Amino acid sequence: MWVLFAFGSAFFAGITSILAKCGIKKTDSDTATAIRTGIVLVFSWLMVWIVGSAPSITSLSSKTWIFLILSGFSTGASWLCYFRALQLGDVNKVVPVDKSSTVLTILLAFIFLGEPITWVKGVAVILIGLGTFLMIEKKAVPDKKTEKSGWLIYAALSAVFAALTSILGKIGIDGVESNLGTAIRTEVVLVMAWLVVFVKGKQHTLKDIPKNELGFICLSGLATGGSWLCYYKALQDGPASVVVPIDKLSILVSIGFSVAVFKERLSKKAAAGLLLIVAGTLMMLIKISS
């Protein structure tokens, strides 16, 4: 079942990128992140209430609290960087860089969780890494209206923090009901997101958010909530080094919608990179199912 949850996470994560992109055309990315985190928090606690896991919060160990909080901070940092990158660059360029966190996660899972790296995983990592490299490209003549400099740095930082999130989250939800773990770490993300808004003095931008963009931000929050709930359920039952690559297949959903909605096109080089990323991920799936 954890494989199905991992694919569910990938689908909702792919939709999230597109909805978020639609919601930050004129809206500040930090403010949008704070709003959508609030939506995710409500969604997460609703699921906790439905499954009835709230009473178990009193039995959580200090270790669990520490790693859930650290995971929340990493998630917040990843989100802030990711949506800033989306605001500056094209979806079909930002998403592949962010998804390179797969390679980092596998390496960290080997170092900190003791998950083995077989030759199949090794080849898969090379394919995913090479595919990501091929998809990182700059326009010969950048369109200042649609793409600005700096997106690559933010996307790379998003990948680093996302990898840390997966490892810290895997440790933090050991023995914890996944919905409850998601809700707790979302509270940390919410505090962090709004703190950034107030520290940067962006709270005044709330009144300037267009209604249609606010709708997309809220929808992206619901999609994120669905992705998280599926992701941490899969992470709780399956190996991080396999769950994460499946989740990153959301790139297919994101790029598919970016072509249909934003008319962004993939070059032959980028398309080849996408095929390598998918091939590397499928290698891991074949290995785990055999």
Q: Would you kindly provide a written description of the structure presented here, covering whatever features stand out?
A:
The chain is globular, with a radius of gyration of 18 Å. It has twelve helices and no strands. The model has no long low-confidence stretch (mean pLDDT 84). The protein has helices at 2-23, 29-51, 62-88, 91-99, 101-113, 119-135, 151-172, 178-199, 211-237, 240-247, 250-261, 268-289. By secondary structure, the chain is mostly helical. α4 packs antiparallel against α11 (250-261).
Helices and strands, with pairings:
Elements: H1 2-23, H2 29-51, H3 62-88, H4 91-99, H5 101-113, H6 119-135, H7 151-172, H8 178-199, H9 211-237, H10 240-247, H11 250-261, H12 268-289
Helix pairs in contact: 1-9, 1-10, 1-11, 2-3, 2-8, 2-9, 3-7, 3-8, 4-6, 4-7, 4-11, 5-7, 5-10, 6-12, 8-9
Question: Short summary of the structure?
Answer:
The protein is mostly helical and 290 residues long. It has helices spanning 2-23, 29-51, 62-88, 91-99, 101-113, 119-135, 151-172, 178-199, 211-237, 240-247, 250-261, 268-289.
Count of individual helical segments? 12
Order of helices and strands: HHHHHHHHHHHH
Number of strands: 0
Q: Approximately how much beta-strand content do the residues carry?
A: under 5%
**Ranges with pLDDT <50 over ≥5 residues?**
none
Helix content: over 70%
Using only C-alpha atoms, the radius of gyration works out to 18 Å
Structural class: mainly alpha
The pLDDT mean sits at 84
The largest sheet, given as strand count, sense and whether it forms a barrel, is: none
Distance between the termini: 16 Å
* Oligomerization status of the protein chains: single chain
Rough outline: globular
